[in-house]
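Quick start: read one record
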Amino acid sequence: MSGSFKTSSFDPSKGAENMWQAMDQLRSQFEKRVGTRMGRGDVRVSVLALLKEEPMHGYQIIREIEERTEGSWKPSAGSVYPTLQLLADEGLITAEESNGRKTYTLTDAGREAAEGPDVTPPWEATGARDIHAMGELPKAGINLAQAAAQVGRQGTPEQVKEAASVLDETRRRMYAILAQD
């Protein structure tokens, strides 16, 4: 992870203050990484794949991508709607307005494009599990930081000592995971 923890300013006499700084830093590092950014082509491929299944409006496309990637990727309207316009300009989709919403449908040319060998949406691509797994570790890290902070605030000195021991053991086990072949 870029932006490693600052340990050079560690002062043992400021134990609780140092712990809160470390927890805040841990939380901020994980929060920055929770969302997964995809490439520009991924929006196009995803839109074509979804419209191959059924006509949809823009918000449905955004919601469906988020659902199929189990929340690890939610494209912005600022990436989906321009992509829809580009696909319409290319003659791959048509838009029909109904109830104040545009519903997009593939044209024959769009169906051909959606059948192409390079149209594998991110949720079906090799390594798709990696996209989902990337969200699991940051969430677990945030939960761990919150639990440690709560023990630090409300625990007895013995509980704090035990929690510190558990965290130290957890850190060693995490590095052991990386050391495995």
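The first helix runs from residue 15 to 33.
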